[in-house]
Amino acid sequence: MRTLTTREILLLISLVIVGTIYIRSIYHTYDIKVLGNAMCVTQTNSMLTYIQRTSVEDYNYVRRFVGMIECGDHSGVFVWEKPPRFTAGPGVRDKSLTWYAGSLIHDACHVQQFKERKPFTGELAEKECLLIQQAALKRLKAPPEEYVSLLEVANTRYWETPYEERGW
């Protein structure tokens, strides 16, 4: 077995340090800021508290990838913003607490894809996030009708709907 030279050891140490810095830079933990009217802020804080109490794993996942939740007319995520911003339309907020939570987790998945430099739009990206959403809905004790046929939603190609035209 060959002994490493000092130069090779220093190179390995620097690669480990750079790798650690890169990993830390894409996995920041946010204190989520909520923007919207009083009713929506209350609704959103209730949803976040529900996630925290029901599934710490999912709560930490959301905090790792979403820094702001804004109540709006449409739902989506702005993965490139700092911090990443999830917008929640009434079709998501008003369906159920668990559906709202699952939608947030779904869009946190897109932020993760973006930060890891993976495709974050399109059919494969959506199917990956639907699987994560489905698993989270089960952990969050959502009613089965919210997650049983969730993967079939991909057949609608909903992601091709322009943001301004989304009814959810």
Describe this protein's structure:
- About 5% of the residues have low confidence.
- The radius of gyration is 19 Å and the shape is globular.
- It starts with 5 loop residues before the first helix and ends in a 29-residue tail after the last helix.
- Helix 2 packs across helix 5 and helix 3 crosses helix 5.
- It contains six helices and four strands, in the order αβααβββααα.
- The chain has 168 residues and is α/β, with parallel strands linked by helices.
- Helices cover 52% and strands 8% of the residues.
- The chain has a four-stranded mixed sheet.
- It has one domain.
Low-confidence segments, ≥5 residues, pLDDT <50? 17-25
Please tell me what the overall shape is. globular
Q: Compute the average pLDDT.
A: 88
**SS content category:** alpha/beta
Number of self-contained structural domains? 1
Strand line-up across the major sheet: 1-2-4-3
Q: How many DSSP E strands?
A: 4
User: Could you spell the SSE succession in H and E letters?
Assistant: HEHHEEEHHH
Number of helices: 6
Give the biggest sheet: 4 strands, mixed
Give the oligomer, counting copies of the same chain as homo and different chains as hetero: single chain
Strand content: 5-15%
Topology:
Layout: H1 6-26, E1 33-35, H2 38-54, H3 56-65, E2 68-71, E3 76-78, E4 85-88, H4 90-93, H5 97-115, H6 123-139
Parallel strand pairs: 1-2, 2-4
Antiparallel strand pairs: 3-4
Give a brief rundown of this model.
The chain has six helices and four strands; from the N terminus they run H-E-H-H-E-E-E-H-H-H. It has 168 residues and is of the alpha/beta class.
